[in-house]
Amino acid sequence: MTKKETIERAERAKRKKAALGEDIAIGEYMTGKEHQSLNSLDEFPAEYQQDLLDAGIEPTEKDRSGSFLQRDCSVVFSTVKYPGLELMSTTDALKEHDWLKEYLWKAVPVDTDKYTAEVELDQTHGYFIRSEAGKKVTMPVQSCLFISSDKIGQKVHNIIIAEEDSELHIITGCSVSHAVNSALHLGVSEFFVKKGAKITFTMIHNWSRGMVVRPRSAVMIEDDGAFISNYILMTPVKSLQMYPTAYCVGRNARATFQTIIYAHGDTKIDSGSRAVLRGEGSRSEIISRVIATDNAQVIARGEVIGEGANAKGHIECRGLMLSDTAELDSIPELKATRKDLDLSHEAAIGKVAEEEIQYLMARGLSEEEATSVIIRGFLNVDITGLPDALARETKKMFDMSLEKVM
Amino acid sequence: MLQIKDLAVEVEGKEIIRDLHLNIEEGEVHVLFGPNGCGKTTLLMTLLGFPSYKVTRGRITFKGVDITEFPTNERVKLGMGMSFQHPPEIRGVKLGDMVNIAQGRKEEEIDEDVIALAKRLNISVDFLNRDVNLGFSGGEVKRSEILQLLAQAPDFIMFDEPDSGVDVENIELIGKIMSELLDRNKMPSKRDKSGLIITHSGSIMRHIKADRAHVMLEGRIACSGMPDEITKNVMETGFERCVELCARNKEVDAE
Ligand SMILES: Nc1ncnc2c1ncn2[C@@H]1O[C@H](COP(=O)(O)OP(=O)(O)OP(=O)(O)O)[C@@H](O)[C@H]1O
Ligand SMILES: [Mg+2]
Predict the structure, then answer these.
(1) Which of B41, B45, B93 is the best residue to mutate to test the A interface, defined by the most A CB atoms within 10 Å of its own CB?
(2) What is the pLDDT of residues B123-137, one digit of tens each?
(3) Do residues A371 and A329 share a domain?
(4) Which residue among A309, A336, A351 closes a domain?
(5) pTM of the shown model
(6) Looking at chain B, which terminus has fewer C-beta neighbours within 10 angstroms, N or C?
(7) Is A377 in the B-facing interface, judged by CB distances under 8 Å?
(8) What's the number of domains chain B is made of?
(9) What ipTM, to 2 d.p.?
């Protein structure tokens, strides 16, 4: 598709409502807020340092193979410390690699809805991350998309490519300044996991009450490739709708989505993960843990579509209700198109069981302590597939965000 | 240590325990027999203060304090502990975490201390890392319960069928740890800990000596006596007959 054709398609989809989630008036949010570049992450204004930390970003860049920071509509910092790893703004990457345009809108169609169209028509950067063939970048890359201005519309297009037999671990945080009352984040992320490659993507969303968020993500996984996503959201958000999709197109391609959501306040979330198992012997696992309290409204979705021989997919959605004014819908879906498939799901919504509280109290905890142990346990999914150090760190980030809400 | 006076307990509006009196002195271990459904577990849950077990009459005094209205954790703080007959599964909470909690530590790691305790019960590190009671076998549940008590070290310990479904070797192991927890290896005058053990098979009683035994029928203590004699009568003649024999002995005593 030529650039002209892409724009035409986007123009035609400009008013196309999304299949899910309430409709957002994009026009109410502005782009164009520019900021100066930084020489290092600790030059980032002190008032925002905590927001970075909360999104899992390490300001000292210790144990990171590269760092990327975009503030509102400007890329303010980008550095790589690892041979075989590329990290820069998508805008720069498109200038540097002529071939990159072939990847744009390959996993996420530009005319999916008005949000993808908007990102094409009024894009404000985003990141490009690529590991060269055979390079195992075991140290994580960190990237942060930060919003510091009121009424801003951040519209990013991210491209992530793990070339054949390479490995890439990404920690990405989306964060917003405590001073922002209202803003929009549109994020298109297209992942390409080539033959035998692996990407782990640990994402912490650190939004606030006034944020409207519409990520649009898709992953193409080739033969023997693996994609693992860990998503953590513990802060309130005004409206979030997303349904990242992994296309396991290659033989034995594997996709794992683990989602942890603690929805409180007036949070409204419609979030799911989808795997399309096209490749022979491809596999997927979708795990979600959702807690809904206060007046939160959450729809937790999961879908596996089996198309390839001997494909195998499982969905496990668990919900915990902590209030009578919250609402949680759990919607797992399976679709089979041939006989040699193994698709399954389990979904359960419950409350904190009295019996469990009493058991813990019998070991000396107060009722509140017992409840907190149970909630912590409920959200505690063992994250598999991450390098040890990253797994430990993810656990730490998770504990930190949990501490804040409990 | 523990005094129960004229206790009546309701569960879900149904009276399960009535006219129950029991005294357990410091350093004493009592054993409680009784048919399925007679109210043994109900008694222990009531002593621990679980909210669905409503005391409708009587008082419970522990270490001289009237605890009838105390919440569970206050009772635990005073020194009560229990191994559960059917403990609940808790997802995401590991056995190792439970051991830390029982020990009253804020520790999040399953460290050397915990591992050393577990070793005494032949419990591996892998097992400590499993979600508590989730998919545990019958015998594993019992050992996990005893391990938590070992960490907790209460002064008064209730064991709800610690021997049900446990193989011979593990019964010996559990019996050994229980004896230690209950000061059974010390001279009688040096014993501070007390216990109440519920058992059906009595097999655990081969490894731990009790001071007194009771038979419960329909929510009452129907007879009490020396452990050897009561155990023998229950095993050989059944609960009802044991109680009859008991009553006859009482008459003889009275004469
Ligand atoms: N939550 C409850 N709701 C209704 N009935 C209950 C409840 N808990 C206990 N009961 C009833 O109370 C009676 C006593 O139960 P309990 O568990 O104390 O018996 P037990 O003596 O421990 O029996 P077992 O030897 O089988 O363990 C039983 O009839 C039981 O069904
Ligand atoms: Mg019982």
Answers:
(1) B93
(2) 999 999 999 999 999
(3) no
(4) A351
(5) 0.87
(6) C
(7) yes
(8) 1
(9) 0.94
